[in-house]
Amino acid sequence: MAASAADAPVVREGRFRGLLLRVLSAAVLGPLLLAAVWYGFPWIDFIAALAAPLIILEWIRLTRGRQVVRLLVCVYTLAALAALLWLRHQPALGRETVIWILVCIWATDIGAYFVGVSAGGAKLAPRISPGKTWSGLIGGMAWAAMASAMAGLAFGLGETFKLAMIGAGLAVVGQLGDLLESAIKRGAGAKDSGNLIPGHGGLLDRVDGLVAVLVAVALVRLTVGGTWPWT
User: Fold this and answer.
1) In angstroms, how far is the first alpha carbon of the chain from the final one?
2) Where are the domains of the chain?
3) What contacts 19, CB < 8 A, 6 or more positions away?
């Protein structure tokens, strides 16, 4: 018991340092990505071209010796990057759609982290990602719902209730993308996909949920047509 009490400040300090690194990294990378999305070509295309080989190299590292899995996740990543560029370069509401996606994903991560840490409770998928809880998922869904509705209000587009429901759904998709990467990392015996971003690990660790949501939104938009989710 004494050892546990003595170790507690060290654990708290480690968590604080990790959170601080995450915040600082997000503070630098977030505005750069938003600026690229806002101004579009050629900046968003440059970001995609830069990210593609980095993410694929991280997937290759994680799938060494598993050729079928490797093939599927290369295809998966390229589909997400193609979805990003296709959505952003849409003549109607392309910029708004990608910003909305980013806001929903960031809100999911923030809500899941703080609600999960505060509330704790039952594990979501203990064999895949022991740190994730059902309370964190619910928190992420709630934050994403609010962020999605607020984005609609900010852009003056869409029905806030409908967007809130879609935002909650995207939070689930994002968490599934996160769990997919976690499962592959566990199979590879790796904690992170790399060490590119301080506090976040590899680039894939930061965009795993975004990759899943980009693919999902693009597929729904192709199926539904129009300017979904704004119509």
Assistant:
1) 59
2) 26-224
3) 199
SS3 229: coil
Beta bridge partners of 125: 129
Q: Which two tokens mark 53?
A: 């080989």
pLDDT at 15 over 70: no
User: Which of 28-37, 108-117, 128-137 is predicted least confidently?
Assistant: 28-37
Q: What are phi and psi of 121, to 5 degrees?
A: 100, -160
- Tell me the C-alpha distance between 183 and 188, whole Å: 9
User: Do residues 70 and 40 lie in contact, with contact meaning Cβ atoms separated by under 8 Å?
Assistant: no
Q: Which amino acid is at 106?
A: W
H or E element at residue 142: helix 134-155
Rounded CA-CA distance 191/201 in Å is 9
Q: Is the peptide bond before 42 cis (omega within 30 degrees of 0)?
A: yes
Structure pTM? Answer: 0.87
